[in-house]
Amino acid sequence: MNIDKAVLAFAGAMVLVALALSIWVSPWFHLLTAFVGLNMMQASLTGFCPAAMIFKRLGCAPGAVFK
Questions:
Q1: Can you tell me the distance from the alpha carbon of 14 to that of 30, in angstroms, rounded to the nearest whole number?
Q2: How far apart are CA 37 and CA 31, in angstroms?
Q3: Residue 62: inside a domain
Q4: Does 67 reside within a domain?
Q5: Is position 64 within any domain?
Q6: Whose CA is closest to 36, among 17, 55, 54?
Q7: Is the pTM of this model over 0.85?
Q8: Overall number of domains in the chain
Q9: How far apart are alpha carbons 54 and 24 in whole angstroms?
Q10: Which range of residues forms the domain containing residue 28?
Q11: Three-state helix/strand/coil letters over the chain
Q12: Predicted confidence (pLDDT) per residue in 44-65, tens digit
């Protein structure tokens, strides 16, 4: 799995976890969804993604976007 796919899978998982938590625990978990969305938007504009840096350190292969 390359870094691009890992970042997308992680972001998708975080949105689903936040959705489940907002249903069963507290609506305040919608803020986690907003944070993930904002982080994805800023990564698309700046190219800086903390999750991509972590996956790179974990040994994922470089992708087309995050190298």
A1: 11
A2: 10
A3: no
A4: no
A5: no
A6: 17
A7: yes
A8: 1
A9: 29
A10: 3-57
A11: CEHHHHHHHHHHHHHHHHHHHHHHCCHHHHHHHHHHHHHHHHHHHHCCCHHHHHHHHCCCECCCCCC
A12: 999 899 999 999 999 999 988 8
